[in-house]
Amino acid sequence: MEVQIRPELQRFIEDELNAGRYDSADDMINAALATLQSQGELSAEEMEDLRAEVDIGIAEADRGDFVEFTAEDIIARCSAQRDAQKKVR
Description:
Layout: H1 7-18, H2 25-39, H3 44-62, H4 71-88
């Protein structure tokens, strides 16, 4: 099997090899493919569960049962939580 790899991905492989993260390009590619294979697709049951959760969210939104927020709100909340955790330590 012969595979063509885009130049930017070739550079990425070389960088990873130079950093010592993999012994060879073959090892790196095999690890990447194994990761991809393990992710797989959702099973029919997982997809059904996901659809049920989405339906619940849609029903809540239709009833007006939601909170509006922005990405900045989330960042601020996470920063505040992180700062509070630092104070506890």
